[in-house]
Amino acid sequence: MKKYLAMILSFVLCLCALPVTALAEDEYFTDEQIAYYQGLGLQGTTVNVYNWGEYISDGSEGSMDVVGEFERLTGANVNYTNFESNENMYSKLAGGGASYDVIVPSDYMIERLIDEDMLLPLDYGNIPNMKYIDEQFQYLFYDPDQLYTVPFNVGTTILIYNTTMVDEEPDSWDILWDEQYRGKVLMFNNSRDAFAIAQAMLDQDFNSTVEQDWVEAAELLAEQKDKTNPVYVMDEIFNLMESGEYALAIYYAGDYLLMVENNEDLGYCFPKEGINYFYDAFCVPTCASNKKGGEAFINFMHEPQVAFENSEYIYYRSPNIMVENNEDSSLYESDVIYPSEELKSQFFKNLPQNIIELENNLWTQVKSGNLSADSQQQDRKIYIECAVVAGVIAVVVVTKFISNVKKKKEQDLSDLYK
């Protein structure tokens, strides 16, 4: 009997010595996955991630805390910060003084970063989950040799409207210029997306290198400012449209699905003039101090469980085939994410420096109102008023001058006859 008791006690002691993960099944990951990330040697290191706002599952409402799970498996600390636009992200990188191990730029910005030698080639040996990326999303125009990127999400722009404030079902961007919605329009607060709306209406190439095209697009945006006085926003759009304060907005298709969950009065359309189709991808910038950690984070984001949970949280199309083919996905066959009809669309590409500078200058003028007809009329009024005042002053000066000359002549004649 004592022999059996000793054997049982020994077995219990062995069980107690085993890791908890060997006794209980992990909520998300297999033992093999756990061992892989624990074996990377990232314990105690920091991984700096710079991503769009509202673009990762964060543990709220029962979702996976993606950053927390990565930290749990690797033992690394993640310093996670957000940006609102590609241009903001670029300015931060170009300004120096910042160190990021993972960034998530869009297609055209990736081209620019590659052209300016601001990205490091990836070691895909550290990213085995590249095997899950659908082939149609590899070797794309922004990274034709597949050296610098791993696709993250795919999306389009979309027109959002409040059905309680907009009677008709819009099919065109021109509703954003309708004066009856003055003060009730939300517009992109980034130049590239905003210009694309005007360019679509003018049937222009989104990547035009003709300066006059950009001037005409800017004039159309200035006309919009005169007619509807739009509010320029980015992630603030969620609260503003969900609250029902605004009639019309432009944003990204995946975000519309999040908004409509909180306000069922919101409708959408893909305007007939055309939309922007875009890719966002993971990259490692040259300022990285923990490239291995960055590549581990990129790989982790495409673990099937992580990619699925993230897609369920942010509602963007994933290039991960394990997500796209999952019939349990909330987005499976969604008309918003997978439109049934062929949409008129264009990609953004990197622009020449002179066009970038022109775009930035014109955008500043549009937002400040310097290009608007109202502003020009006010300038003309001020000019006319100044001209009138200057004319009056000139008349007074000339009159006084003539008077002084006349008096001097009279004085000279008087002196002559004395």
Task: Report what the structure shows.
With 418 residues, the chain is α/β, with parallel strands linked by helices. The protein is 44% helix and 13% strand. It has helices at residues 2-17, 20-23, 31-38, 66-74, 86-94, 107-115, 191-201, 211-228, 237-242, 253-262, 291-301, 304-314, 321-324, 353-368, 373-416, and strands spanning 46-52, 77-83, 102-103, 150-162, 185-188, 231-233, 248-252, 266-269, 275-282, 345-346. Strands 4, 5, 6, 7, 8, 9 and 10 form a seven-stranded mixed β-sheet that branches. It has a three-stranded parallel β-sheet with strand order 2-1-3. Helix 7 (191-201) crosses helix 8 (211-228) and helix 8 (211-228) runs parallel beside helix 14. The protein is globular, with a radius of gyration of 31 Å.
Secondary structure topology:
Elements: H1 2-17, H2 20-23, H3 31-38, E1 46-52, H4 66-74, E2 77-83, H5 86-94, E3 102-103, H6 107-115, E4 150-162, E5 185-188, H7 191-201, H8 211-228, E6 231-233, H9 237-242, E7 248-252, H10 253-262, E8 266-269, E9 275-282, H11 291-301, H12 304-314, H13 321-324, E10 345-346, H14 353-368, H15 373-416
Parallel strand pairs: 1-2, 1-3, 5-6, 5-7, 9-10
Antiparallel strand pairs: 4-7, 4-8, 4-9
